[in-house]
Amino acid sequence: MDSTRFISAVADYFDQMIPTASDDELFAAGYLRGHFDLAVGTLEVAAEPFSQQDLLAQVDRSLTQAIANGELNPDDQQLVTGLWQQVQHLAA
Question: N or C: at which end does the chain have fewer Cβ atoms within 10 angstroms?
């Protein structure tokens, strides 16, 4: 899957969660989507082609930094990282 289709698939995945997700799941999705969108924007600003692996790595770095900075409590960290694992399966 090319990066454009992957980005679209991830956006659709998040959008489809809205009607049925719990408040905690919506928080995790919103938080993760912010990191994902920031990674997409950062890579697009570089104006060079990027792969979905580049995007996954960028989000991984962003989440790792956020967790290291204490942005998430342990429960939220577990929700976000679990959701991130699900999102990464869309790349397969």
Answer: C
Cα 31 to Cα 2, 11, 25, 37, 48, distances in angstroms? 24, 13, 10, 10, 26
Helix (H, G, I), strand (E, B) or coil at 83: helix
- pLDDT tens digit string along 69-85? 999 999 999 999 999 99
CA dist 88 and 47 (Å) reads: 24
Q: How many CA atoms lie within 13 A of 91 on its CB side?
A: 13
Q: Among 79, 33, 82, 77, which Cα is nearest to 59's?
A: 33
Task: Report if pTM > 0.85.
Answer: yes
- Give the CB-side neighbour count of residue 84, counting CA atoms within 13 A: 21
Residue 65 is encoded by which pair of tokens? 């930094």
CA contacts within 13 A on the Cβ side of 6 = 19
Q: Tokens at residue 86, please?
A: 């699900």
